[in-house]
């Protein structure tokens, strides 16, 4: 298996529900006027190989660049992943041949039940760093492509470390690449009672960031507090664009910028693709993208 540092530059991509028509990602496959995607980031359960085959089998056969987002691994749990689960995911990766796979550091499954938006983020401490890193090292040995870790959504931080410190420690201990979800990071910063414009970016291992996610942000009341939540059905938020524009050039190994826009009208996605490509041109990142 290749190192995360040897991955190809993909460009600007889209994360989309492969069965959904909003947005219809197939309208964005043809290059023209900047409103096109260089790759597709797809999510799937371990058991959904046939579903993937049905909806994007033609893209796989045509070697269209893909990135895979598993949604079954309990990365911050010390319990080993079930053999059957790993075997099915290896088969799915073998079939779809993504450039890489990346998943949020969280508990996604409980007693066989998929938690979805009720996933449990990690306890932000040294013990959790070691447990998560051990799991990630194992998965990188088992999967046919590099496995990256993504900072998860958090509305109630637990533990004494900042999310930036935690993700850096796990990545360095496991020697893996990072998926930086800007909306998740802004949401964490707000949930921790910190200024969302003063994220300690320089403490993040920016040289390990391979993929960046941008999306909309939703204000949600939780008790007496207002939280900023990552919301894929909204247009990409200006806070996310500003963060990307300010820091992208520091991500020297960046390979892809992914718009997470599930259920967003294609017209909005097209505008966001233009904006992403303007930032790529301005910052000079992704220079070898096709």
Tell me what the structure shows:
- With 290 residues, the protein is an alpha/beta fold.
- The chain has one domain: Divalent-metal-dependent TIM barrel enzymes (TIM Barrel, Alpha-Beta Barrel), CATH 3.20.20.150.
- Helices cover 32% and strands 20% of the residues.
- The chain has helices at 49-61, 83-96, 126-142, 163-174, 182-191, 238-247, 266-283, and strands at 11-15, 39-44, 66-70, 101-104, 109-110, 113-114, 147-150, 178-181, 209-214, 216-222, 225-231, 256-260.
- The strands form 3 sheets. An 8-stranded parallel β-sheet has the order 3-2-1-12-9-8-7-4.
- α1 runs parallel beside α2 (83-96) and α3 (126-142) crosses α4 (163-174).
- The longest helix is centred in the C-terminal third of the chain and has 18 residues, at 266-283.
- The chain starts with 10 loop residues before the first strand and ends in a 7-residue tail after the last helix.
What are the defining features of this structure?
single chain, 290 residues, alpha/beta, TIM Barrel, 8-stranded parallel β-sheet, two-stranded antiparallel sheet, 32% helix, 20% strand, globular
